[in-house]
Amino acid sequence: MNYRTHIVSSLSEIGQAAWDGLLAQQEEANPFLSYAFLHALHESGSASPESGWQPQYIALYDGDLLAAALPLYVKGHSYGEYVFDWAWADAYQRHGLDYYPKLLSAVPFTPVAGPRLLAVDGAARTALIAVLSATQRATEVSSTHILFPPEAHARQLQEAGFMLRSGVQFHWLNPGYASFDEFLATLEQKKRKNIRAERRKVAEAGVTLRRVRGADATDADWKLFNRCYRHTYAAHYSTPYLNLDFFRRIGRTMPDNILLVIAEREGSAIAASLVIHSADTLYGRYWGELEHVPCLHFEAAYYQPLEFCIEQGIKTFEGGAQGEHKMARGFLPTKTFSAHWLAHPSFADAIERFLEREAGGIDEYMSELNERNPFKGSQAQHHR
């Protein structure tokens, strides 16, 4: 099969109908890969050449049909990725070599697993990997990194000469709980008591919470959320990746995938969280507070979304990385993958050895986490 290859710097060159039509054919697709979300990142300037994310999407056409596509960026830094390669960049620099620019396939600022090699069938996916391999060899990049692909796609990339790396995230599973209390009843007593105490602490502080579906969110809600989000970044002396334009755009273009949780005290909003969801999965994403209330982060970013999942019959809540504390709240570890290709043979060999050692550590970490399962004996097996 002969495909026409296009390299595009704007998703508008592909068009929403073609992009979302291809995405709808993928297993494990999620809202972050939608035209609405990616285009909002680009057009708001959050992920743009000015911020070090140069879109260079690969698109393969069979006649007029978009047969395969890869969200790909030329990166001049490693911010906003969540699979850390700063040490690799440092090693290159120490040897007088340039690590940047590099190629990166990911959803900017979004550590959520999902397809990267979008394709109508196996033949188109194989052709897409071949075009990627030719592109990375023909351009002056140090390396290519595919973050959070499904395991099957990671294995395909491995066969094409990529090295695999694994990580750990934490997911909550809903077997069909009728209520939050029914979920709590499955946890060990100490964990259950702790969650009830945290929720009580928030209520006793005079804080009330309201959930706002995307379709009902007003511009005032988005301004408030952006203020909370920016305030929390400033409190940690860091620069926020996203901006009000981005939040307004997704509010307009993908309202059915959005839930805002707004915390108020004495008539004033003091904090907010924003989660993204599909019909079967919810993703914990963004949080910000204007004033600190103990345990409010857990209430707004975990317990309120968990209640929403139970009410809506949503089966999985992906809580993201960094999270032994999430296990105490009913989240369980799951393995993630990334695939890496380095042009420099000696560095590729050194990093391959490093990844082999790291993989052993990840497997041990997973085993250790699974032994700390938060569910009661009979439930533990069910959730593993």
Give the radius of gyration.
Answer: 22 Å
Shape: globular
Tally of separate helices: 13
Question: How many E strands?
Answer: 15
Task: Provide the domain count.
Answer: 2
Report the helical percentage.
40-55%
CATH superfamily of the largest domain, called what? Gcn5-related N-acetyltransferase (GNAT)
For the largest beta-sheet, the strand count, sense and barrel status come to: 11 strands, mixed
Global structural class: alpha+beta
CATH architecture classification name of the largest domain:
3-Layer(aba) Sandwich
Under CATH, the topology of the largest domain is which?
Aminopeptidase
Main sheet: which strands, in order across?
Answer: 2-5-6-8-15-9-14-13-12-11-10
Helix/strand order: EHHEEEEHEEHEHEHHEHHEEEHEHEHH
Outline the fold blueprint:
Layout: E1 4-8, H1 16-23, H2 35-43, E2 53-55, E3 57-62, E4 65-70, E5 73-75, H3 86-94, E6 102-105, E7 118-119, H4 122-138, E8 143-147, H5 151-159, E9 163-173, H6 180-184, H7 189-204, E10 207-213, H8 219-235, H9 244-253, E11 258-265, E12 268-277, E13 281-289, H10 296-312, E14 316-318, H11 324-327, E15 332-342, H12 345-371, H13 377-383
Parallel strand pairs: 6-8, 13-14
Antiparallel strand pairs: 1-3, 2-5, 3-4, 4-7, 5-6, 8-15, 9-14, 9-15, 10-11, 11-12, 12-13
